[in-house]
Structure to design on (378 residues):
């Protein structure tokens, strides 16, 4: 059986005493991150001024800084030691990512950030409850599925709705392979429907109209409250819960659809749609953002790897304008035209279904459509 690295996320319900300890560890982790970063950047400047070799971020250096911090700030000794170590590990990783994939310079962490978290080791799950270091009592959690594999770390997170979650990272988690169906599918991502299949099936789009209306109304209510007043805090909390509900709706829809696709097909081909074009259009920007094409493809990719299915992203140029029956390329096809007749073979095409059929053809043949030629080209 294949094993993978994965994480399990659960909602946890700490009591007041446990919540205070969690918040204290989150504050200590943020404190160590910021102070170690500040000290390290002072060392960088001093090394540059005196002509020494560049000083790279490493665990030995940051551990020495942490020891000095504990001498000047005794309250750090009350925090979980692994939380502080993982905090400067995150800082090391952040410096290594500078300049990669659009990452800028490392920023300080703010206590006003709506998402607060810390990482720790040595956690246990006892009778469906979470056991954390420095907390004597067990913490209730929604233990919906059993953790399989070797536990590495756990990340405790608090969102802006004051909800707490634990993400347990494991290695060697067994994944049972799915039965082979022998089916292939091409998928065209769009605005009217999130995904259109080459067999004619359409997933529809994520239904967010109702929750968006509630968010808009709650924002109007919040704007009329006195800032930082009691009623302001209540309205802000309600607004944050609506945003969390919207996020849950999106995640639920995407996970269900991607799992169904991976279960039903052995080869999956998706067009490399670019959402930047939609974001530049003020009339389509919100609709484009709500489709979450990148997350849809990301989930399809890792689930295909888990269950030994093939996933490919293909060039979708001219797939909408090319007849999937005879290969005729139409000269123009505006976005508002959802159906068109092929002048060559007189076939009526649904725009998205035709594009999905062509994506499947491009994916299986390994070729691409040309703007001028009526045939596939290298």
């Amino acid at each position: 059986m294949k094993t993978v690295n994965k994480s399990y996320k659960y909602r946890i319900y700490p009591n007041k005493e446990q919540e205070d300890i969690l918040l204290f560890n989150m504050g200590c982790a943020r404190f160590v991150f910021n102070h170690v970063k500040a000290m390290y950047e002072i060392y960088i400047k001093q090394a540059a001024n005196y002509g020494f070799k560049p000083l790279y971020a490493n665990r030995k250096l940051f551990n020495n800084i942490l020891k000095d911090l504990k001498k000047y700030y005794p309250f750090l000794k009350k925090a979980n030691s692994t939380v502080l170590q993982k905090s400067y590990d995150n800082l090391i990783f952040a410096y290594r990512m500078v300049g990669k994939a659009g990452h800028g310079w490392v920023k300080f962490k703010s206590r006003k950030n709506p998402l607060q978290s810390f990482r720790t080791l040595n956690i246990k799950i006892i009778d469906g409850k979470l056991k954390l270091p420095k907390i004597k009592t067990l913490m209730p959690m929604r233990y919906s599925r059993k953790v399989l594999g070797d536990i590495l770390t756990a990340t405790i997170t608090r969102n802006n709705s004051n909800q707490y979650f634990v993400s347990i990272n494991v290695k060697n988690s067994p994944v049972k392979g799915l039965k082979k169906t022998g089916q292939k599918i091409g998928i065209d991502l769009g605005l009217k429907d999130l995904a259109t299949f080459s067999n004619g099936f359409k997933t529809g789009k994520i239904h967010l109209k109702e929750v968006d209306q509630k968010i808009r109304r709650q924002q109007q209510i919040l704007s009329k409250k006195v800032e930082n007043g009691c009623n302001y805090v209540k309205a802000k909390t309600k607004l944050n819960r609506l945003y969390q509900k919207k996020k849950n709706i999106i995640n639920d829809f995407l996970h269900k659809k991607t799992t169904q696709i991976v279960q039903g097909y052995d080869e999956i081909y998706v067009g490399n749609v670019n959402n930047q074009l939609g974001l530049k259009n003020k009339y389509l920007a919100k609709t484009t953002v709500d489709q979450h094409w990148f997350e849809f493809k990301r989930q399809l990719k890792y689930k295909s790897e888990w269950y030994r299915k093939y996933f490919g992203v293909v060039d979708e140029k001219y797939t909408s304008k090319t007849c999937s029956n005879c290969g005729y390329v139409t000269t123009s096809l505006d976005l508002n035209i959802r159906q068109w007749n092929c002048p060559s073979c007189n076939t009526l095409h649904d725009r998205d279904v035709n594009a999905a059929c062509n994506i499947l053809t491009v994916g299986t043949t390994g070729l691409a459509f040309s703007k001028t030629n009526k045939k596939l080209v290298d």
Remarks:
- The mean pLDDT is 88.
